[in-house]
């Protein structure tokens, strides 16, 4: 029995050590626009250097693969790809990580394809979550007021690309690449940035 214990316990201990050494990260981003040639013109600071849309697509996949591991979670806040759902699925399914989609205005067509839907562990129009004690409200569009904003909840959105929302003084942040300058941000980065904002009271004036 002692010999059996040596054989059975040692692999379990090794497995526990390996699991503890895996540093799982949580990422967030928005408005990727795989396959959208026009985005290179609309967002020249982040996309203008690409030769063509294929060059952009390939570089975006490379960036993702360099940042995200198979054990990570990625919140994708909409507007994933401008192509058929099937072609989009071939790109997204090849990227590592557990992907959670918050639907954007340009995702309706691709979501009709079952292959594209299968790329995501979860799909939402709006999502509330807790992360390290922080209340998060995620939607593709910026909200003037969001649930629990007057209690310090954080609102993450996309949609506006490089443009401000008028909510930057509060705990609302655009997580898109074209705004942050980061292809993906860690959840910790975005929360730390949002926490520098004021708590938004009910009916607070929004500067536009």
How is this structure best described in words?
- By secondary structure, this protein is of the alpha/beta class.
- It has one domain: Metallo-dependent phosphatases (Purple Acid Phosphatase, chain A, domain 2), CATH 3.60.21.
- Helix content is 32%, strand content 18%.
- It is built from eight helices and nine strands.
- It has helices at 2-21, 39-42, 44-47, 53-67, 85-92, 114-117, 177-180, 187-194, and strands at residues 26-29, 73-76, 98-102, 122-124, 126-131, 134-139, 154-157, 172-174, 185-186.
- The strands form two sheets. The chain has a five-stranded mixed β-sheet.
- The longest helix has 20 residues, at 2-21.
- It is globular, with a radius of gyration of 20 Å.
Element string (H = helix, E = strand): HEHHHEHEHEEEEEHEH
Question: Which architecture does the CATH hierarchy give at level 2?
Answer: 4-Layer Sandwich
Number of strands: 9
Terminal residue distance: 73 Å
Mean pLDDT comes to: 91
Question: How much strand?
Answer: 15-25%
Please bin the fraction of helical residues. Answer: 25-40%
**Rg over CA atoms:** 20 Å
Q: What composes the largest sheet? A: 5 strands, mixed
Domain module count: 1
Tally of alpha and pi helices:
8
Low-confidence stretches: 1-9, 13-20
Principal-axes geometry comes out as globular
Given this structure, which CATH class is correct? Alpha Beta
Assign the structural class, choosing from mainly alpha, mainly beta, alpha/beta, alpha+beta, or little secondary structure. alpha/beta
- And the CATH topology? Purple Acid Phosphatase, chain A, domain 2
